[in-house]
Amino acid sequence: MIADYIKEGKIVPMEVTISLLRNAIQQALRENETSQREGWGDGKGRFLIDGFPRKLDQSHKFEESVCPAQMVLFLQCSEEIMLERLLRRGETSGRSDDNIESIKKRFPMDAKFKQIGSSM
């Protein structure tokens, strides 16, 4: 199911994505507890989540279901540069969504976040 969404450049249902993220974060925190007992790591869970959320309702649901975000990092560049970089990544990534059709479906989301960010 997830592969089909990605292949078509569609957004995976937020419940699925949030569940996967929650499980991965919980696993990493458990492993970090072990690392701290062995003398390294500060015991704090810090995660950089790339590509999610893409919509404001996803952001709210993630914060309700997993944890509040401490920071949002928004990197800005032109659509032309994004397209060039993603197509170049597609040459080696093996990702089925690194094609021009799927990539261009993502651009309206970037515009929506720019609008939200400029109004804050």
Provide the descriptors you would attach to this structure in a database record.
mainly alpha, 120 residues, globular
Explain this structure to me?
This protein is mostly helical and 120 residues long. It folds into 2 domains: 1-70, no CATH class; 74-120, no CATH class. The protein contains 5 helices and no strands. It has helices spanning 2-7, 14-37, 56-65, 79-93, 100-118. The longest helix is centred in the N-terminal third of the chain and has 24 residues, at 14-37. The radius of gyration is 17 Å and the shape is globular. The model has no long low-confidence stretch (mean pLDDT 81). One of its GO terms (molecular function) is nucleobase-containing compound kinase activity. Pfam families: ADK (PF00406).
Topology:
Layout: H1 2-7, H2 14-37, H3 56-65, H4 79-93, H5 100-118
Helix pairs in contact: 4-5
GO biological process, one term: nucleobase-containing compound metabolic process
Keywords: Kinase, Nucleotide-binding, Transferase
Protein name: UMP/CMP kinase
Largest sheet: none
The level of helicity is 55-70%
How much strand content do the residues show? Answer: under 5%
Give the ordered list of helices and strands: HHHHH
Per DSSP E runs of 2 or more residues, the count of β-strands stands at 0
Q: What is the radius of gyration computed over CA atoms, rounded to a whole number of angstroms? A: 17 Å
Q: How is the quaternary structure best described?
A: single chain
Number of structural units classed as domains = 2
> What is the structural class?
mainly alpha
The N- and C-terminal alpha carbons lie at a distance of 36 Å
Label the overall shape: globular
Overall pLDDT score:
81
Low-confidence stretches: none
- Number of helical stretches of at least 4 residues: 5
Family: Belongs to the adenylate kinase family.
Keywords: Kinase, Nucleotide-binding, Transferase
Pfam families: ADK
Enzyme class: transferase
